[in-house]
Structures are given as structure tokens and as C-alpha cells.
């Protein structure tokens, strides 16, 4: 086993739009170590979202190789991708993506349901909510929670399967400054205490400054740092 939780080699992604081909990734390569905190930045149209979809096992490359936690995932079927995604990746989105009619507890349980876990599921979800400071909010629905609390529920949900990586896509984008700072502090604490690899997609230099390394994407490749 090597030290990389993510290893991408010469990834390309071509979208066909009628007669036209759009090259979103053009031979992109990168490596991210176990337990690393990385920010991914890049302008609109840089290929950043395409890269994140591939890293998160939501899509596969047109060509190239991608290894997640030593598993080759470039050529997997949709069902196989879904299994890896549920087991290895925790997602935290800008818009929280919570089920509006479900309690915090039920929202956090969802990945366990998809994984077929039955025994102890409720207690695991309760503990996850406790770990993000929401022990007293387990029966609340999203509309009864503040934005910061909703994002904490989303983080608890992302953690529930003990994933190899957490992908946070603009995780503070819909929050006020204080709530945003609290969410970043929580993510950094979880990285420090659990060793979970944290990948943050952001346009905000202040958020990126919390990372150990910034990977900049431009025109479908990793932009080399200026000397």
C-alpha cells in the first residue's frame, strides 16, 4: 500500500455535444496523501467540477487511471461506482442537500441505509451527530435548524461510513462568517482527530488558506506553481 489515498494519472474527459467535443480534462495528473488537507481552486470552465465528479466517483474519465484508496476505479460500472462512493467518500455540499421532511437523525442514517446496515444504525447516527455538537438536535428537521447546524448535520452524514476522503464543495458558501468559521474549525478538527483526508473545493482564498496545499486547475490540467 502506498501513501496516496488519491492517485490520478493522465485523466481526460471529453463531453460530446452534438457534433462538438468539449475537452474538460486534458491529461490531468495529481496525488493526494492519506490525511492531507487540500484545497482545489480554479476559474469557471477550468475542469474543476469535472475533476471533483471523477474523484468523488460520480463520473468516470474518458481515459487515464484513477485509484481511490488503492482501488482502480476508472473503468467501474455505475453500480460499482455507487458502492465505492458510499463506502469511501463523504460529501459536504454548499446547499447541505438534506431531506427536508426527515429529522437530523434520519438524514445522517441515509448512507447506512444505502449500505444495508441495520444493526446499530440509529445509535451510530446519534453518535455522529454528537461528534459535531448536535446531540440536542437529533429530532429536529432542517427548517428547524440554522444554516450552520444544517451543515453540521451534513458533515455528520458524510462521516457516518468512516470514508477515506471527505469532499467539501464550497462548504461555507451559504453561511455567515461566524458559522463558516465554525464549520471550517469542525472540519479541521475532524481531520486532526480522525486522520480523514479533506478535499475542499473553493473560490475563497481565506478558506483555501486553511489547507496544507492548494491545487490550481486551469484548462483541464494542474497549473504548475510559478517560480
Structural description of this entry:
With 227 residues, the protein is α/β, with parallel strands linked by helices. The chain has one domain: P-loop containing nucleotide triphosphate hydrolases (Rossmann fold). It contains seven helices and ten strands. It has helices at residues 48-55, 78-88, 104-114, 121-131, 147-159, 177-194, 205-208; strands at 4-17, 20-33, 37-41, 63-68, 71-72, 89-93, 165-169, 197-201, 213-218, 221-222. The strands form two sheets. The protein has a six-stranded mixed β-sheet with strand order 6-7-8-3-9-10. The protein has a four-stranded antiparallel β-sheet with strand order 2-1-4-5, covered by helices on one side. α3 (104-114) crosses α4, α3 packs parallel to α5 and α5 packs parallel to α6.
Quick tags:
single chain, 227 residues, alpha/beta, Rossmann fold, 6-stranded mixed β-sheet, 28% strand, globular
Topology (elements, then pairings):
Layout: E1 4-17, E2 20-33, E3 37-41, H1 48-55, E4 63-68, E5 71-72, H2 78-88, E6 89-93, H3 104-114, H4 121-131, H5 147-159, E7 165-169, H6 177-194, E8 197-201, H7 205-208, E9 213-218, E10 221-222
Parallel strand pairs: 3-8, 3-9, 6-7, 7-8
Antiparallel strand pairs: 1-2, 1-4, 4-5, 9-10
Helix pairs in contact: 3-4, 3-5, 4-5, 5-6
Q: Briefly, what CATH class?
A: Alpha Beta
Radius of gyration: 18 Å
Task: Return the domain count.
Answer: 1
Task: Tell me what the CATH architecture is.
Answer: 3-Layer(aba) Sandwich
The unreliable regions are none
Largest sheet: 6 strands, mixed
Q: Label the overall shape.
A: globular
From N to C, what is the helix and strand string? EEEHEEHEHHHEHEHEE
Question: What's the total count of β strands?
Answer: 10
Distance between the termini: 33 Å
Let me know the average pLDDT: 93
- Find the CATH topology: Rossmann fold
CATH homologous superfamily placement: P-loop containing nucleotide triphosphate hydrolases
Kindly estimate the percentage of residues that lie in beta strands according to DSSP.
25-35%
User: Main sheet: which strands, in order across?
Assistant: 6-7-8-3-9-10
* Number of discrete helical segments: 7
The percent range for helix content is 25-40%
Q: What structural class is derived from the secondary structure elements?
A: alpha/beta
